[in-house]
Amino acid sequence: MTLSVTLRHGFPGFALDVAFEAPAGVTALFGRSGAGKTTVVNAVAGLIRPARGRIVADGEVLVDTARGVFLPPHRRRVGYVFQDGRLFPHLTVRDNLLYGARFAGGGEAGLGHVVEMLGIGALLGRRPGALSGGEKSRVAIGRALLARPRLLLMDEPLAALDDARKAEILPYVERLAGETGLPILYVSHAVAEVARLAATVVVLAVGQVARAGPVAEVFGDPDTAPLLGLREAGAVVAARVVAHAEDGLTELAFAGGRLFVPRIAAAPGAAVRLRIQARDVVLALEAPRGISALNVFPATVTRLHAGEGPGMMVALKAGEAALLARVTRRSAEAMGLREGLRLYAVLKSIAPAPADVSAIE
Amino acid sequence: MTSWLGPAEWEAVLLSLKVAFWAVAGSLPLALLVAMALARRRFPGRQVLNGLVHLPLILPPVVTGYLLLLAFGRRGPVGGVLEQAFGIVVAFRWTGAALAAAVMAFPLMVRAIRLAVEAVDPRLEEAAATLGASPVRVFLTVTLPLILPGILAGAILAFAKAMGEFGATISFVSSIPGETQTLSLAVYALMQTPGGEAGALRLMAVSVVLAMGALLVSEWLARRARAGAGAGGGA
């Protein structure tokens, strides 16, 4: 299943002109506010009629302005989890969940499984007004799922939540991607969320696709870093849990070697994904000795990207893994950084936060 | 009650209830349609429609009644057609009293429903559409339940207005006992009759009871609506 989107739409003072393909799995639509992300998902859902464009999901044409095709939203079978939940205030949680199931002809068949997956069994009799933000998000996800969509749109479903609530929901979204096998178009402006969830990322900037591709590739590219925000930039690497040590650290194996991070929940052998922020990586010309950092990998400089500020983004290859390091231009000059230089990348074990590790790969 | 009220007075009360009921029941679907159109649609002539709906609120009731007589009288452009095509006569009949009451109460009903429609978040209706609900289903399962308190409040307000209608009714269908003499007209007639004060007072007592009843019911509905919104709001 793939989703193919080509869109042109003008607003006063803003023009959207995008084309991208979303393969199976989670595709993140990433960009700052005002980049046009919500317009794209609204066009896929049928809530706006694009001036020009063609949208094909699973071989079915949803929109083709050249041929005058416009499938109304209720015939698209495109699930939509809105940023603000949009639960029906006059219905109980149970009736909200089953709202779309009635039209999909599914009855209550999937209810038990979805309720269990999202942990909302205790809420069924309540009204949306009596739910917390995180609970509303989970009910909204369940409601969209039970309508049996062939494609799920999620428009910053976590943006309205505080960090604690986000941490509460994210595992459910991870399970969703893994268990349902639904293609998901996930809108976000949070790098950490995208790094955690998405297989593919489409970076939007002022109405255009700036970059698109597999997350590890796009996030590991120093040229993309300014689009993500320099403080947030960082590589995403696939890893495997080796062991949990008694002192609270977890040992991971990745293409660049072994590394230690603060204890994570996954069992030994589990595949995980780790985001290593560029600003957490220190570079050294010689193998450092007598330092506190536990993770030191031999690496080769593959590219340098100098911006306008005092910093420089350094792309590295550690084994087969692409890493990013952000250093000052002053350091880069003093060290004589150049492409092909062999050096050492140093990462404090304590640097990756629990939110930087996810169970998706 | 008949012994306390007297057969003619009792007749006036029952007639008023009948007239008001049919005035509200008959105009409710049209009021809903007009309120939806005014709240949601942008179309040419929208301001004209809005003005027409509100006209009975602003015009002197006698003028409204006289205009109704001109249009719906047996020789009027509408009344003539109604009589010839369907054999329906409204002039000087209780149905005419219901028509006058409906026209006078219409703006109140439309305003109440329109406010309720405007309070419905259209994004909820979008959400329903993405869940597979056709526009008709969206209306029946989301919009209608959410505006129901507004519809009920509008209907009660309109009912009260219809019960008390005087000017348009007397100029359109006159004050014929047993046919068009509603409660207000009966009170007025009794006031004009020597020795009628006692009957007028009894009818006034009845209208106070009916008005209080309507007020209590509408308060109760409003409270229920608020409680429903309180339990369900903020979604």
- How is the main sheet of chain A built? 6 strands, mixed
> Of all protein chain pairs, which has the greatest interface, and how many residues does each chain bring to it?
A-B, 33 and 27 residues
- Strand elements of chain B, count: 0
Number of domains of chain A: 2
Q: What is the fourth-level CATH superfamily of chain B?
A: MetI-like
Helicity of chain B, as a percent range = over 70%
Query: Which percent bin holds the helix content of chain A?
Result: 10-25%
Unreliable spans of chain B: 230-235
The backbone outline of chain A, from C-alpha atoms, is globular
- CATH class descriptor of the largest domain in chain A: Alpha Beta
Order of helices and strands of chain B: HHHHHHHHHHH
CATH superfamily of the largest domain in chain A: P-loop containing nucleotide triphosphate hydrolases
* Largest sheet data of chain B: none
Count of discrete structural domains of chain B: 1
CATH topology of chain B: MetI-like fold
How many distinct helices of chain B? 11
Describe it.
The complex is a heterodimer of chains A (361) and B (235). Chain A is of the alpha+beta class. Chain A folds into 2 domains: 3-219, P-loop containing nucleotide triphosphate hydrolases (Rossmann fold), CATH 3.40.50; 234-358, RNA polymerase II/Efflux pump adaptor protein, barrel-sandwich hybrid domain (OB fold (Dihydrolipoamide Acetyltransferase, E2P), Beta Barrel). Helix content of chain A is 23%, strand content 37%. Chain B has a single domain (2-228), classed as MetI-like fold, CATH 1.10.3720.10. Chain B has helices spanning 2-5, 7-40, 46-58, 61-72, 77-86, 94-119, 122-130, 135-164, 167-173, 183-192, 197-232. The longest helix of chain B is centred in the C-terminal third of the chain and has 36 residues, at 197-232. In chain B, α2 packs antiparallel against α8, α4 packs parallel to α9 and α6 packs across α8 (135-164). Chain B has 235 residues and is mainly alpha-helical. Helices cover 81% and strands 0% of the residues of chain B. Chain A binds chain B through residues 45-47, 72-80, 82, 84-91, 99-100, 103-104, 127-130, 136, 143-144, 147, and chain B through 121, 123-124, 126-135, 137-138, 141-142, 145-146, 228-235.
